[in-house]
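Case study 2.
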Amino acid sequence: QVHLVESGGGLVQAGGSLRLSCSASGTILSINSMGWYRQAPGKQRELVASITSRGSTNYADSVKGRFTISRDNAKNTVSLQMNSLKFEDTAVYSCHAAALTYYGGSYSNYWGQGTQVTVSS
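Prediction:
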């Protein structure tokens, strides 16, 4: 079992910055990747950014150049630095991890509770 805890959401003005953090805990053997997804009202959940244990990153086109994802493998944490925020970035952001536990036979997907990010225009 894996538990993800998120922090850093809030209300900011357009052009401002926020930093989201997520920490994974539990019977973790290894984590292949961690990342952030977001979902706005009436829209489908989408990948914002992800990073593998080796440091390979992937970003949505809409956030490239503005957001930066980083990780600490030893602590099983991932962060998302969000700069130059736009109104369109308003959504619930959820942490995700693809993890292998001591009692599981394959990697499984785990999700945090979600944190609200609201950008005022």
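The mean pLDDT is 96.
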